[in-house]
Amino acid sequence: MSACLTTILAAPSPSRTGSDGYAGARAAYARGVATGESGSIAAAPGSHPGHHPPLWAVALAFAAGLGTAAQARSNGGMAIATGDGFLTGSLSLAVGLVILAVITAARRPSREALLRTLPAMLRDGRLRWWHLLGGVGGAAYIGSQAVTVPLLGVAVFTVAYVASVTSMSLVVDRVGFGPGGPRAVSARRVASAALMTAAVGVAVSGRLLSGDLVWWAVGAVLVAGAVVAAQLALNGTVAVRTADPFPAALINFALALVLLLAGLLVEHLIGHRWAPPPP
User: Fold this and answer.
1) Residue 48 and residue 97: Cα distance in Å, rounded?
2) Which of 22-26, 118-122, 174-178, 270-274: highest mean pLDDT?
3) What is the 3-state secondary structure (H, E, C) of 214-249?
4) Which among 132, 148, 129 is positioned nearest to 140, based on CA atoms?
5) Is-contact 189 126, C-beta < 8 A?
6) Which among 167, 176, 208, 238 could disulfide-bond with 248, CB atoms 3.0 to 4.6 Å apart, if both were Cys?
């Protein structure tokens, strides 16, 4: 469920004036199209330097963060119980996909965005096919979580993942890959990324000194975090341009599930099974 919240929160939130964040951002994008500046929606709510996100959005993001730690612990334990990280990741994504499908089917704006707005934008080029590849990040995140948490623990996984997302997000924002166009990289954000990187060093220092740190697992988490940073930008772009967050989230989970199921199939075809660490 935390992954659902993270995916939905990737798009702009309502502004302090109380206007609809998705509709407002979409209107700003439409103005950009009309003036020949469709590559950016810098005028969208939340993109101004002095804008502060509403308290409810911050609280929801915080709750998603707490849920991420709980999800990591749950998926790691399930991976050990099933003896297969790909199977665990697939089950986790299937649950999220069902939840998002029910929500999307129950909301008329979400149905309209998924069945009408999104296909129309793909046809006329306002959205490209690669905007729908956010599920690659979802597969990387859930898959790495199920495989590496039993090896690293929840704390090391979470710190390494957040550090990677935070650092890569600076690059994503700077090049304008997200829905808000290019954003300046402030000294405060650079300092935050540096602190998170230092936190990774502190988190792994004990196991590094004892010689039982699994380096490939740390690397897998860092790569997954970098991919997720791009995923958030892609999902945010789709959510803004369709004026609804749920189609992007639904497609994200569906693609991620297909990728993990493909990995599970290949794993069993070659006769290799993921081996959980000893108790």
Assistant:
1) 33
2) 118-122
3) CHHHHHHHHHHHHHHHHHHHHHHHHHHHHCCCHHHH
4) 148
5) no
6) 238
